Fold each of these.
Amino acid sequence: MENTNFLFDITATEKNARAGVFHTPHGDLLTPVFAPVGTQATVKAVTPAQLEEIGASLVLSNTYHLYLRPGADLVAEMGGLHEFMRWPHPMLTDSGGFQVFSLADTRKVDEDGVTFKSHIDGSMHRFTPESSIGIQEKLGADIIMAFDECADPNNAAYIQQSMRRTHAWAERCLKAKTRPDQALFGIVQGGVDSDLRRQSAEFISSLGFPGHAIGGLSVGETKKEMHDTLDVVNAILPTNKPRYLMGVGSPEDLVNGILRGVDIFDCVLPTRLARHSAAFTPTGRINLMNAAYAHDHSPIDETCSCYACQNFNRGYLRHLIVAKEILASTLISIHNIQFLVSLVKRSRQAIIESRFESFAQEFLESYQPRRKRGD
């Protein structure tokens, strides 16, 4: 019997773009939706109350990091991730696959799973599809991920092998899952090879997952390769289930992803940029460390309603950065997260009003990636 918690209702479409509602035990997700990343059960420099004020509705945490510290058993003892980090809204955990496979020099892959060395203390550990699901069930997020292998996009000979391993692991994850209050998403792999991506999308969608993730992108491929891959995959994935583009969060990528039928995004980018003094504006990123902003009385973005923009100017923010005050990271993170959350919300409204194509075109023409003003 289908779990009504995880039904996906599409409320409006415009070509491939969709506005929908994904029902979870901790509330409805209005899609498209952007999830800030709380790697270690915290979105860096931002409190849960601030996230709520921003309007965030979904947070992602990381299985690999929480497994190593403080441990899934401890999180479960504390009532699961929602209670542990005091976030009462929907949550998503990744499988740990991307982090494990990024440890290229310290891990060994076989057909059963992966043995790897902790980046914290060098101790040895092992993940299998079954153990990844077990850890995620203890963490208790609403949406969990199948354990997959994210292969090096530059190693064409290996991509097909890793894709087939990902497929076998997806089947094992389905068999291992026991909690009915969690939605397990399968992950499509295959690099930027259109034939492999097509094969992967067809296989993963045949397994009956309540949602699907698209992995292995934003890892060094060109923007055109990313867009072409999304076109191939989303033409195959079921239209009545949510599509999640993993680890993608630059503003132009969100808009281009929504144009191609993506519903869910996550990325560390807004908080990572904030810790390096960079802020989003409607025309591109700015570096608030630049001396040109020392006497600037304007907010980061005149059109932004976030706490940082409503209360502080660029000159003050630059002072905090130069003085190495922690508040700089908090204020710029608040702004950057709200910029992305607002962007997808405005995209959703534009889809509902059948004007998203023009909205997207106007945004993409105005926004210049990595724009540096005042350098």
Amino acid sequence: MRNCRENILTIFVQTSEVTILIRNCSYLVRDPTHIERDRDVLLEGNRIRTIGNNLPIPADAEVLDARDCVVLPGLINAHTHLYQNFIKGISSAVPLVPWCNQVLFPTLGAIRAVMEAGNRRAPFLWSVLAALEMIRGGVTSCVDMDATAPEILRAWEAIGFRGVLAYTLSNKWVPAELRAGEESMKQQMLEFVDQFHHPDGLTTVMVAPSTLFLCSADFLQWAGEQARRLDLGMQTHIAETRGEVDDIVKETGRTPVEHLQYLGLLESRLSAVHCANVSAEDVNLLAKAGALVVHCPKSNMKLADGIAPIAAMRKSGIPVGLGTDGCASNDLLDMWEEMRAAVMLARVSEGNAAAMSPQDAFSMATTEAARVARLDAGEIQPGKLADIIVIEPGGIHLRPFHDEDLINMLVFCGKSSDVRDTVIHGKIIMRGRRILSLDEAAIIQEAEALDTELLERRAEFQFSP
């Protein structure tokens, strides 16, 4: 295992600015509504410099030939839980709260026990493993509401992935042995922001009170105050289940969205995740406040949580980002599947085949997700962050290739395996479907060994409903 770890840590580091020319882009998708043919894109440092025809090749440039390919802005996963990579494919057919007690909390207990026993690699491994899956699928950044550890962000820096760590906060309901004390948690979060919030780099931090029933009112308000003081985004789960809504109404006399407004937290820096059980008045409140929503259709379907009224939200002007949620309640970090699911769920729930278009879903995975993540990305425009993917549409599932409506073709037929190259922060992280920044096979080997250990420890942790 020592040699395996040495290989993993032989990482690809670029300390100076790099120039990349993406040449001969047969299709350049600048944003969901603007597609151009036969263009070149010049990247300098971590930004897009120029878009044009037959651009000269700078002497020191790396060149990606995109002939017969589609060049897109990198996809953005607006909400996930990367630590759940160790419980993909194992959750039972149970709703959210029993699922937490039967699957999620025992896993967190096992992770903590393994780390306390001396294996501190778990956060690094789940973060790198997840980043590998996303990079291969054309995802260049994510918002990760995680079991927080510095190793998560160091993993992103090692592989070259852009990550937003939504620092999870809770002071009730979660078993006490799985969380820090409130004052300690507050101090740790502030120190974490100071150390890892780098708007000009690869890692940034959000404030993330997990959900209303996991946080007291004063703790929620403290979180909002810190987000405003430090100019950070704020993300929280809201109205995920009908039971959650009923409990909040019984306790406060207000819906979860109304309670956020009452606490002074309904504002433009807030991204409300799920909103699968909201009323028309809730939608109006979100829209008036300028708040954002994150839609996780596959997770909501798997847990039978409900169906968010996304068509109504977008019609009211609410920016809606798209997220996979964690691998325990989705099983994949695949934004192509998520886009398809969003379109189809909106159409069947509304009884209207025009309720959501592929362009809507693509916007939710790029430009609108960038607003949620507070990233200057999601479009291929001069000055934007150089987070770009190259699709090679050679698979039989994309043949015949109908380019009359390119976004329609990609959203309904595209797969993660179509991604050939991934550029993040102006650096080529995957080229020709080969990860350049670390030893992928060694990562998988070590992660599987850790998973065996976690499976053995999980049975030690049982939590009551």
Amino acid sequence: MDDKSNHTDPSNERAFGITPSRKLAEKKEFNRRELRGLSIVAKGNMIKRTDENTYLVRSSDMERWYKVSWNGKRWVCECKDHEKRAQSCKHVYAVLFLSRLPYILMANFQSGEIRCPKCNSNSTIRKGLTSSKEFASQRYMCKECKNKFTDKGESKGLKGNPLAVVATADLYFKGLSLRQIEHHMRSIYSLNVSYPTIHRWVRRIIRHMKSLEKEHSLEGGKRWHIDETEIRIDGELAYVWNALSAETKILLASEVTYGRTSADAEMVIREALKRAKAPPEEIVTDGLKSYNVALAKDYGCRIAHVSKPHFADPKNNNLVERVNGTMKTRIRGFRRLDNLSSSAELIDGLRLYYDNSRPHSSLRGKTPVEASSKLSNDDKVRN
């Protein structure tokens, strides 16, 4: 039986709030079979995955299941509508939209204009879905320059849903282990992705964020706090050095070393100066002698050194010590740090997450980068 795929189901259309007066407008966005595929997903309990290449999609009358399988190039269905037309039926569209669910959910919380990557025009139209095994991206065409593109965007080379990739990195930096994230993505989003793949995604995200950061200088403010904290790398004692802006709460540098020498202290200072728009007026540290030697160096600017301020002093190092505690909590989720190079990459990833993704109550729910951008814009307006 064909499951009546060529006929309009009014109840399905009403489920999406589509009234007869709106049908004409909706046709510009989705065709009839796409809408019916969306309806199948929205009903719930209509799709189950039997293996990596096969789904079963329940018929509208709930009496049978249709097999939708990946043939190496696209999804195909055993229903008569698909066999007759040799094009995607509502069951195939249901599978495609299911693969897009994480993207749809997350994109609605980060909604913005769809712009052409070639000419930056927002005059775009939908041109159907790509028939992909892992992630059915939405095709668009720019009405201005006729350029065709998809919403997979800059995540080329990353297998799967681009926003699911970002979600796994977010969970990782929140402290979940790779195996916990693997289980979460499978049980919540039905995404079968292995923990080694998740680890590759995280490292790719870190490299991408670092490349973007190089294009912008960070608002460092007038006072910085620097402190070091102990971690273990393959069982050996090591140190994470953090340089934090007191004004913007931006973590300017996070470096990993095996020692606490003046050269190590100098390295974190120079990294922070490299990323900041302007040097600070003063740097606050604890009583470690390495800071005295490092801050006696010539950095091409005058920086006052406030060493070991009293606990009651407003300039105390509590700010950066809290960051150290937050970072060590996150590091526990890494399970084990194997070597200095990979550890430094992950620690820098935590810094990037802290600056760009972690909201702060003291900044009214904004991330440090968001808050510093607003501060910079306010200063321009005043001037």
Amino acid sequence: MSNSGFRRVAPAIGLFFLSPFISEYLLGDFPLTKIGYLLILAPLYGGGALLIREVVRRSRKGWPTILVLAFAYAVLEEAFTTQTLFNPNYLKLNLHLLQPAYIPSLGIGGWWTIFVLTLHTVWSISTSIALVEACVPERSTTPWLQWPGLTLDSILFVLAAIASTRFQMKNDPFRATEMQFVVSGIIVAAAAIVAFLLPARPAGTESALAPSPLLPGAIALIASSIFLITPPAWAWGAVAIYIALDLIVIAIVTAMSRRSGWGGSHRLALAAGAALAYGWHAFIQKPVDGSTGPTVWASHAVCLLIALAVIFFAARRQSRSGAWPAQ
């Protein structure tokens, strides 16, 4: 591959690996001693994020469409490939995910459903896309892959979803009910349809000036931190907090994004705030493999430094492109 060819696909490669890095390593689920898992996780996480991003940019849609498709991805993964939305003892890990705010008629936990779907929608997909797009401001709304590359990514994503499903079924006898699968499928299909019916509303349509990017960044950091530290033991109280946070952030960002001057630097700030919340929270997160000790803390520190490096690089690119406001 020539240098020009690599530069063209570099953002796509970056997103392919950044998504699983944020989803599992920056969050603190896995320490960097398990970095080999990245190659296994990338086709599912990164493949899904890249597929969503490329389809949206090719169709000339915007961030509302990305967010709704990210939600569809979240339901697809957690309802079908892992079934954690319905499994009371996922992989026999005794995590008790469904107990807080359990809804017997649906066979789901209110806390876990909102929690895990938000993790994928906000962090696994949307934050990852926003960070990489901020690194290439001149190409943030154009496709990064040609049709052969998009086809390959789609195949890798489908194969990864199938492999994840087979792994879960092989290692766990649990099966969701037929109705749970049907309803989940309807939700995924409906979300995909709604996503492409949403208009690509241009930012900055109001005369009022958008605030400094530091404000949406701070809001994202604070809201994300509250979300992550809310105890599941609060059950329906936690659910209420999650819903309130979602509605408040959506309302604030929607209002700010309509102001003149809103752009890539503001989207970067939102993604940076969310990523940094993951980064600090990892230090109080117990890895899923049970790892403990100084090595784990060192891993969290390195992951946070990597995230900061990506954010700093993206901020410099935004500044050089003139997208970072002077105020």
